[in-house]
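Example 9 (inverse folding). The structure is encoded as follows.
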């Protein structure tokens, strides 16, 4: 198998501007690099700002004599 997988998310509904977000998954690596590519196919100047938000979700644990499950 491959040691690297690239997944592209492309926004084609942004007018004449195409925005691509690329995730790179590598085997045995939990670090996932993310790259953005913005292609402006219009005659006007494109301006934008990148906004990123991290959210931490609480883990719920269910205890059973035979196993511990988390949700």
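The amino acid assigned to each position is listed next.
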């Amino acid at each position: 198998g491959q040691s690297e997988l690239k997944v592209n998310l492309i926004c084609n509904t942004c007018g004449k501007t195409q925005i691509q977000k690329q995730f790179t998954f590598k085997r045995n690596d939990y670090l996932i690099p993310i790259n953005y590519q913005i292609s402006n196919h219009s005659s006007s100047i494109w301006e934008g700002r990148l906004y990123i938000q991290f959210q931490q979700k609480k883990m719920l644990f269910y205890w059973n004599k035979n196993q511990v499950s988390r949700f």
